[in-house]
Amino acid sequence: MLSPIAAAAGRLLISEPFMPDPNFKRSVILLTEYSEAGAMGFILNHQTEMMLGDILPDVSYSEIPVYMGGPVAENTLHYIHRCPEKIDGGIEIWDGIYWGGDFEQIKQLITNYQLTEDEIKFFTGYSGWTPGQLDDELREDAWIVANKFEADAIFSNNEHNLWKEVVISLGQRYAHIANFPENPMLN
C-alpha cells in the first residue's frame, strides 16, 4: 500500500500519478468527512473557468475563482475558509481550516472587500465515496494520504503545481513520483 497514513477528515488525498479517472487526474483533495457512512472532500487544484460573480451575480467582488470540488452535485456551491473570526458557524476540519459557515455573512464580507481568495475557497460539487469505497481505493493504491501540510497550500491559487508540491513535501519516499509524466506512454 502506497499510503501508511489512514484517511480521516482534515487530511489530504493525493491521486496516484496515472489516475485513470479524468475527474481526479493529478488531484489533491481535502477530506471534510470520513466515517463508516462514507467520505467527502473537495478537489483543491482543479480551477474552473468561472469566477464567484458568474455564480452569484449579486456579489460585487467577482474576482474569486471557483474550483471543481468533484463530480458529485456539480450544481451546488461549497466553501472552506481560514477566518473563523470573520465567519460564524463553520466546522473546523483541520487546524485552522473551516468548512461552511454563515453564507449571508460571507457574501457581505466579499461585497465589502473584507474577504479575499487567500482566506476562502469556493467549489462547485464535491468528491464523495460510499461506505468502504475510499478504503478499497486506498488498498488499490489509487491515493496517498497526507496529514502534514501547510494551510497556505490549501488556499494557494497555484493549482497547476499543487499536486507536485504536495507529493514532494511527503518526503523522499514519494518525491520521485512527482516527476512521472502524466501519460506513462511518454516515459
From TrEMBL:
It comes from the Bacteria. Gene3D superfamilies: VC0467-like. SUPFAM superfamilies: VC0467-like (SSF143456). PANTHER family: UNCHARACTERIZED PROTEIN YQGE, UPF0301 PROTEIN YQGE. Belongs to the UPF0301 (AlgH) family. This is YqgE/AlgH family protein. It comes from Mucilaginibacter lutimaris.
